């Protein structure tokens, strides 16, 4: 951080060291309106509620690969309740390079401007990975505050491509995604250990696949809207078998 341990009054003189981009040299603090930058204390003092809980749970973001030390920069308020600590351009209005940013809605971003980085949303959910135009894009991990987790590919803030999704109760999906939905080939295991392997469409079981219930019954055949539909074979755990047509689960 800079030389000041606490925020000075509006009329206090400060020094500005342009090399370190922190107060040192002659100047005055002023309001953030009209393009004047206002300095504040540690940036995490502006992180509250569920965002702070998530940050404490997962720890500090790892800047080790970027040769960036947040404490080398003071905190600026670039708009009302919008705080930034890190590298910025000559106008001191536009963040560039690496930094930490707290947005007016309370969400927190740490990393390179434009990614990769980590975003903790106001509701406590967290995404860490690649970005494009401020949206999750590329490879990344999303963890909800309740512990649901997705690791895989993204496109324009939506799950897209290959990924693995897990739930705190032990349920798990691994396979293809399209625009945020299970779509294509995948495998879904429920908390009770029931298991489906096959095809999905727009988040529903659709096409050919095999479902095995926890009690040992199985169905191998065609599906529509997550119901047995079309030709298939149903086998009971006692050995009985039915082979033929099914209509919406019957």
UniProtKB/TrEMBL annotation:
<keyword id="KW-0677">Repeat</keyword>
<protein>
    <submittedName>
        <fullName>Uncharacterized protein</fullName>
    </submittedName>
</protein>
<dbReference type="InterPro" id="IPR003409">
    <property type="entry name" value="MORN"/>
</dbReference>
<dbReference type="Pfam" id="PF02493">
    <property type="entry name" value="MORN"/>
</dbReference>
<feature type="region of interest" description="Disordered">
    <location>
        <begin position="1"/>
        <end position="34"/>
    </location>
</feature>
């Amino acid at each position: 951080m800079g030389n000041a341990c606490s925020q000075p009054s509006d009329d206090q003189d400060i020094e500005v060291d342009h090399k370190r981009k922190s107060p040192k040299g002659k100047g005055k603090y002023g309001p953030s309106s009209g393009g004047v930058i206002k300095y504040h204390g540690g940036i995490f003092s502006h992180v509250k509620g569920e965002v702070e809980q998530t940050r404490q749970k997962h720890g500090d973001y790892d800047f080790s690969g970027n040769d960036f030390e947040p404490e080398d920069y003071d905190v600026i308020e670039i708009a009302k309740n919008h705080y930034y600590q890190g590298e910025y351009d000559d106008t001191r209005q536009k963040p560039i390079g690496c930094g930490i940013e707290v947005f007016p809605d309370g969400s927190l971003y740490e990393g390179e401007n434009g990614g990769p980085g980590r975003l903790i949303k106001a509701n406590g959910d967290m995404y860490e990975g690649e970005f494009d135009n401020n949206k999750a894009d590329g490879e990344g991990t999303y963890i909800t505050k309740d512990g649901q987790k997705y690791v895989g590919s993204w496109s324009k803030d939506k799950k897209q491509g290959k990924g693995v999704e897990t739930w705190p109760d032990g349920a798990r999906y691994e396979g293809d995604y399209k625009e945020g939905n299970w779509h294509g080939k995948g495998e879904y295991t429920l908390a009770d250990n029931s298991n489906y392997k096959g095809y999905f469409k727009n988040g529903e079981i659709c096409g050919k696949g095999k479902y095995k219930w926890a009690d040992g019954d199985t169905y191998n055949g065609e599906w529509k809207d997550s119901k047995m539909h079309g030709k298939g074979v149903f086998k009971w755990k006692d050995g009985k078998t039915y082979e033929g047509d099914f209509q919406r689960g019957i």
